[in-house]
Amino acid sequence: MTQLTNLTPLLEAEASQTGSLIMTVGMVAVLGLVFYFFMYRPQKKQEKETKAMLDSIELGDVVSTVGGIVGVVVRIKGEMMLIETGADRTRLQIQKWAVRQVEEKAHPDEEAHRGSTVDGKSAAKLKK
User: Fold this and answer.
1) Do residue 64 and residue 80 come from a single domain?
2) Can you give the pTM of this predicted structure?
């Protein structure tokens, strides 16, 4: 009987350590879920929206760049685009990732009335 009395404090200490370990693992799991829902998931959603916006850019769209330049898209070729800005129609070649937002989408019916040309070329040829 004395042997059981001597083992009781050891068993209680071991049980409390196991409970403490389970509590620690549980807290780490909860912290991981918090990071996922408040950091990783919104970032992925924002990246998906940005990619969709960049893929939807068309000729005639008014875009603003990360540097603050606003211009009209006149040519798209792969990951590069040519924008025309200002009254003197200065042309700048930029990369698609540099577009911050599309300020105004091109109106297809207005393009048809203007002839859809830039420098005498049709918009369909420029987009290729």
Assistant:
1) yes
2) 0.59
